């Protein structure tokens, strides 16, 4: 599976982006565009990684860019439901110390 992105929002400014598949060099542009195209009024951004099968270094960079975007726009960002494979990458790289999981 490549990458499927689903977004769910509510009127209170809460947005959930659910990723399914691979977040790698072939798919990060799609995710990056999803984040950078977000509109004003978002207060919370949840990234649901419960169906991410693979996370490459390019995917990590993309998640860091999402964090940077969120900080710039005063948006709280959270990682939800990371798979074991994703948690292993986070633990190995120290990413779990950079963003709330």
Give an overview in words.
This protein has 101 residues and is α/β, with parallel strands linked by helices. The chain has one domain: Transcription Regulator spoIIAA (2-Layer Sandwich). 35% of the residues lie in helices and 34% in strands. The protein contains three helices and four strands. The chain has helices at 28-36, 57-72, 84-93; strands spanning 3-9, 14-23, 44-55, 76-80. A four-stranded mixed beta sheet has the order 1-2-3-4. The two termini are 24 Å apart.
Q: Overall mean pLDDT score?
A: 93
Major β-sheet strand ordering: 1-2-3-4
Number of domains: 1
**Which class of secondary structure composition applies to the elements?**
alpha/beta
If you compute it from the alpha carbons, what radius of gyration comes out, rounded to the nearest whole angstrom?
12 Å
Shape label: globular
SSE ordering: EEHEHEH
Task: Estimate the helix proportion, in percent.
Answer: 25-40%
Show unreliable segments: none
Distance between the termini: 24 Å
Extended strand count:
4
* Proportion of residues in β-strands: 25-35%
Question: How do the helices and strands line up, and which of them pair or pack?
Answer:
Blueprint: E1 3-9, E2 14-23, H1 28-36, E3 44-55, H2 57-72, E4 76-80, H3 84-93
Parallel strand pairs: 2-3, 3-4
Antiparallel strand pairs: 1-2
Helix pairs in contact: 1-2
Characteristics of this structure?
101 residues, alpha/beta, Transcription Regulator spoIIAA, four-stranded mixed sheet, 3 helices, 35% helix, 34% strand
